[in-house]
Amino acid sequence: MRRPSERLLPYAVFGGLLILWQIGSTTGRLNPLLFPAPSKIAATLALGIISPSKTAYALPTHVAHSLTILALGFTIGGILGIGIGIAAGLSSLVYRILSPILGFIAPIPAIAWTPVAMVWIGTGNPTILAIVALACFSEVIFNTITGVRSIPRLYLWQARSLGAGRDFIFRRILLPAALPGILVGIRLGLAASWRALVGAEMFGGVTWGLGFVLYDAKQFYATDAMFAVLSLVVAFSLALEQGLLRKIEHFTIERWGLARTLKV
Fold first, then answer.
1. Nearest-CA neighbor of 110 among 172, 55, 191?
2. In a domain, 225, yes or no
């Protein structure tokens, strides 16, 4: 068990950095145009959420748009990545067929496909959705394949020798044993989806979304709005990470004794 001081240390460090940033910006040691005070960022964020009509950016509408695209793209990419990854992990033939394709996709960042997607699909939400799904898919499939292929074959041989069927082996051996790797892929896929979403919204020809606000605010040097958007991205990422993925881990691999996550 950690002492309270150890648990509070990360938050104290982060809070101390914010205080130094606030002091530096208000005293002029930091250029307020480049580093707006955290209080100003918070005020811009609050105004954009509570009274969007009084600001240049209606943040609730942009947030709703981005979260919708993120949810759809993350779901599509995650389902495809897990399904195809399990098939490739179980079948050597499928793995050999997919290896050249995955080897071609892996080195290319998902955001780099945005110009190609704009030519193939056109500008707008379909392109953003495709880029987000690809970003999630790339992370999930590699970790799923690794998780399945890392299962000791001795487990499968022992289950078959005791008369276990395919359905039992899949549900009670393969899936639980591969779940730590799958969850790592989902966690990385969520982070990759956020990066791809914000980047694609900057250049994908849309007029809504957090990425659009970030890029548009840059044109007017509205750094307080830019940092406000980045704060929202961090907040939603942490909420999904701790509120959703952390609970899935707790009710699955931690209870099964397959893994143990450390609390900060």
1. 191
2. yes
